[in-house]
Write a structure and sequence with these properties.
Layout: E1 2-4, H1 35-38, E2 43-45, E3 49-53, E4 58-61, E5 64-67, E6 71-73, E7 77-79, E8 92-93, H2 98-107, E9 113-117, H3 121-132, E10 136-141, H4 153-166, E11 169-172, E12 176-181, E13 186-190, E14 195-198, E15 200-203, E16 207-209, E17 225-226, E18 232-234, E19 237-239, E20 244-248, E21 253-255, H5 260-276, E22 287-292, E23 295-301, E24 306-311, E25 317-323, E26 326-333, H6 336-349, E27 352-353, H7 354-357, E28 364-365
Parallel strand pairs: 1-2, 6-19, 8-15, 9-10, 9-15, 10-11, 17-20
Antiparallel strand pairs: 3-4, 4-5, 7-16, 12-13, 13-14, 18-19, 20-21, 22-23, 23-26, 24-25, 24-28, 25-26, 26-27
Bound molecules: flavin-adenine dinucleotide (FAD).
Length: 367
């Protein structure tokens, strides 16, 4: 049985902040009609899990109790809110589901004014898409730079410059101090005194694991479902994706990732484990991408203690994260070959010396 609280067929999340905002874009479904049934999967849309009895091996849904031998918890994450931006009567939204993305889509036509609260990947992707669709866009970010959580300062500045060049109005080091209904939609007052009269406000300040329904179960839930290195939370109960915290065997460290690729890798690991009864540890090299203004940002591995900037032959900038001279991660903008090189090296060798991954005759060093 595959249960999901949404009524739609399973669909992909990354397009929601990108091409799905185009007026006529179809829902990015993951399966063709009938495909799940043909594969013998009893798909139950609109089934919200409300509780779990670990000892009795029962999942409770609204009006339905389901017994299980094995359970995979994959309830993802839910967007965080911002105090003061929670009036349901104002045009203020988030982006996580197709329904929430459709509300953004309806709001961002030509001449619309959009305010995005949060200069992370999600907020900047929507900002870039809305600009392409003709809207005026303001991004309000509490920190003094965008993308500070995901990128080193130099890479983040590059993205910031790209946004400024393309017309995003960046309000950095600012927060919203008030939101009132206006003729247009909602007027925001910022901590620097600026006022923004907008049609729609998108709150994109991160997400928290959707694990509230597990309250009262005997599972250990810290910020997410706590699992061992085999993604097991209790015998026969597993968690994957945004809602899972597990001991990543690659680093022997507790981690939670909100990345499309790792969610899929974890799901494949657990499926193999359940089907074959095999034990084993799930080792994942973190990888995430973001598309903005036709450029692709890719990040692989971890942040290091130092960052070395290098250039590819065609001049693309690559930011190499190092610990003691060894590459532990890479962030790059429009340099897919360099990212693939790092991904291969880190997959096969763990940490690898900078010069062996990116030889000086191919990759120019910059200060
Ligand atoms: C708009 C957007 C853009 C993104 N873009 C990128 C990107 O460019 N690159 C990248 O690497 N990652 C991206 N991500 C992150 C990536 O999509 C997620 O990491 C991935 O979808 C996680 O998969 P998941 O199965 O854990 O959660 P989800 O895909 O969120 O699936 C969880 C499902 O569980 C359902 N659910 C929740 N609670 C319950 C309940 N109690 N009962 C029943 N069902 C429930 C939800 O309705 C949802 O369908 C993006 C995410 C979003 C939201």
């Amino acid at each position: 049985m595959l249960a999901d609280m949404e009524d739609s067929p399973p669909y992909d999340k990354p397009p929601l902040s990108k091409d799905f905002l185009d007026p006529e874009a179809p829902l990015p479904t993951l399966v063709k009609p009938g495909e799940l049934a043909d594969a013998g999967i009893d798909f139950r849309p609109g089934a919200r899990a409300t509780g779990l009895d670990v000892a009795g091996r029962i999942v409770q849904f609204e009006g339905l109790a389901v017994e299980f031998d094995n359970l995979v918890i994959a309830t993802g994450a839910a967007p965080r809110g911002v105090p003061g931006l929670d009036d349901p009567d104002l045009p203020i939204g988030v982006i996580r589901t197709a329904e929430s993305a459709l509300a953004v889509r309806r709001a961002i036509g030509p001449y619309a004014v959009l305010a995005v609260i949060g200069g992370g990947f999600l907020g900047l992707e929507v900002a870039a898409t809305a600009l392409r669709l003709g809207a005026e866009v303001h991004v309000v970010e509490f920190a003094t730079q965008v993308l500070g959580r995901g990128l080193c300062p130099a890479a983040a500045r590059m993205m910031e410059d790209l946004h400024r060049d393309r017309g995003t109005n960046l309000h950095l080091g600012c927060s919203v101090t008030a939101a009132h209904a206006s003729k247009r939609g909602v007027e925001l007052t910022l901590s620097n005194g600026a006022r923004l009269d907008t049609d729609f406000v998108l709150v994109a300040v991160g997400a928290t694991p959707a694990v509230g329904w597990l309250k009262g179960s005997s599972l250990t839930v810290s910020d997410a479902v706590d699992c061992d290195s085999g993604l097991q939370a209790a015998p026969g109960i597993f968690a994957v994706g945004d809602c899972a915290r597990w001991v990543n065997a690659r680093y022997n460290a507790s981690m939670r990732l909100e990345h499309w690729t790792s969610a899929g890798e974890q799901a494949a690991f657990v499926a193999r484990r359940i089907a074959s009864g095999s034990l084993g540890k799930c080792a994942i090299l973190p990888y995430v991408w973001s598309d903005q203004f036709g450029s692709r940002i890719q990040i692989v591995g971890l942040r290091g203690t130092t960052t070395q900037e290098i250039r590819t032959a065609d001049g693309s900038r690559v930011f190499v994260e190092c610990d003691d001279g060894d590459v532990v991660g890479v962030a790059a903008i429009d340099a897919p070959r360099a990212v693939l090189t790092a991904r291969r090296a880190l997959t096969s060798r763990g940490a690898a010396p900078l010069d062996s991954v990116f030889p000086t005759d191919t990759y120019e060093r910059t200060a």
